[in-house]
Amino acid sequence: MTLGRLVLAWIVVAAWFGLATFVAPYIVARVTDPSQQNFMVFVSIPLLKWRLVEAGLVTLLASLWFDSLGSGQWWLLFLLIGALATIPTLYTRPSLETSRNALIAGAIGELVRYVLAGGLLAWRLS
Q1: What's the pTM value of the predicted model, to 2 decimals?
Q2: How confident is the model over 53-57, as a mean pLDDT?
Q3: Residue 17: exposed, middle, or buried by beta-carbon count in 10 A (0-12, 13-18, 19+)?
Q4: From CA 86, how far away is CA 105, in angstroms rounded?
């Protein structure tokens, strides 16, 4: 695996994670309160930095998977990684304003984010 392929794959996944970071709160708001007309998304800079690091770590893991272990069942690998990242957020103490629907919609969004990142990496690294 060349460094160029890894960097290109990281850029693709980082772009997807950045896009998902802005889109996910909007979707959760629409699912939990469809009558809400105006909605503004605020994303902090530390969260965006974490998404860049997270994209790099997922890219390195995918590189290991596709280069040494094989390319089959990549969706299951990324579904499990997404579950490992998402389940702790479900068990944190939510605020009183957070509904159960919002927690479930957020968790599903996180799982979709990881599985789609796995698909992008399978496309770029396989």
Answers
A1: 0.74
A2: 90
A3: buried
A4: 11
Virtual torsion, Cα 64, 122, 109, 76, nearest 10 deg: -70
Residue 53 in tokens: 């690091």
In angstroms, rounded to a whole number, what is the distance separating the alpha carbons of residues 11 and 56?
9
Task: Label residue 7 by pLDDT band (50, 70, 90).
Answer: very high
Residue where the block lists tokens 């596709």: 66
Give the Cα separation of 108 and 8 in Å (integer): 27
Q: What is the C-alpha to C-alpha distance for residues 84 and 111, in angstroms, rounded to an integer?
A: 9
40 to 72, 86, 89, 103, 108: CA distances (angstroms): 40, 24, 22, 19, 21
Q: Which tokens in the block code for residue 96?
A: 């009183």
pLDDT in tens, 17-32: 988 888 887 777 777 7
